[in-house]
Design goal:
Strand order of the largest sheet: 2-1-3-4
Helix content: 25-40%
Structural class: alpha+beta
Order of helices and strands: EHEHEEH
Mean pLDDT: 87
Distance between the termini: 15 Å
Number of strands: 4
């Protein structure tokens, strides 16, 4: 089962700058990208991206996560630790 992450920003270059910093390579050709979607076939990999957005207090980015088709949850400072715990509990092979 895959997890889908969506980044949304109303400011030009915000998503591109974050992605290039996070992935350490050019990610987008269009600096005016205001929404970016990423499907992670390995759900535990989502934890790193979630943490990078929220731990760095990137106020110009909004992060949404989907565990099930067409159902998205907004990831916020007050719920992201619970979302990470949920990902670990639901998708850990040790469970």
């Amino acid at each position: 089962m895959a997890i889908v992450l969506n980044l949304i920003s109303e400011k030009e270059n915000t998503i591109q700058n974050f992605l290039e910093s996070y992935f350490e390579k050019d990610m987008l050709a269009d600096s005016q990208t205001y929404e970016w979607s990423y499907t992670l076939p390995e759900p535990l990999e989502a934890i790193n991206l979630i943490s990078a957005v929220l731990d760095n207090n990137l106020k110009d980015l909004t992060l949404w996560i989907s565990f099930d088709p067409n159902v998205f949850l907004k990831v916020k400072p007050d719920n992201y630790n619970d979302i990470i715990k949920y990902i670990v509990e639901r998708f850990s092979k040790a469970s």
